[in-house]
What we know:
Layout: E1 2-12, E2 16-21, H1 24-27, E3 37-42, E4 45-54, E5 58-63, H2 65-71, E6 78-85, H3 95-103, H4 105-112, H5 116-127, H6 132-148
Antiparallel strand pairs: 1-2, 1-6, 2-5, 3-4, 3-6, 4-5
Amino acid sequence: MFEFEACIVEFQGTFRNYALFVPAEILSKLPQKGRVRMEGTMNDYPFNLAIQSGKEAGKFFSISAPFMKSAKLKIRQVVKVKCQIADPEKLEVPEEFSAALELDEKAAEIYHSFTTGLKRSVLHYVISAKSSETRIKRSLELMEKFKFDPNYLKHKK
């Protein structure tokens, strides 16, 4: 288990986000140097994020505005982080998406051909919906898009 405190800062990456930089002493204890997925808590709020790398910025967790709001975090706030290396293949599949996959064999076959990272992106889109009705709607829309164009997400950047 790794524990540290760091301050949340605004960070202008591809999107306007916030960052929490990982101290060098923590990075030096990680078994691998590339992108490492971590799970744990920030001020007791759960997270599962990959450590990102900025060209000159260093290594950090990219934190979205919705995460900041849900975790009740603020810019320049010192955050207590407790984390460990996560299983990079582990995915949290919402019930609504799982049910849609069971109903549509062809779409499920296409979904299962995706990389873990692409699956994670799809699931994030579904999970980010606040209501079950919206998660169902998004799940069903994705099933149709997968069948219409199996490479739909693969060339969407």
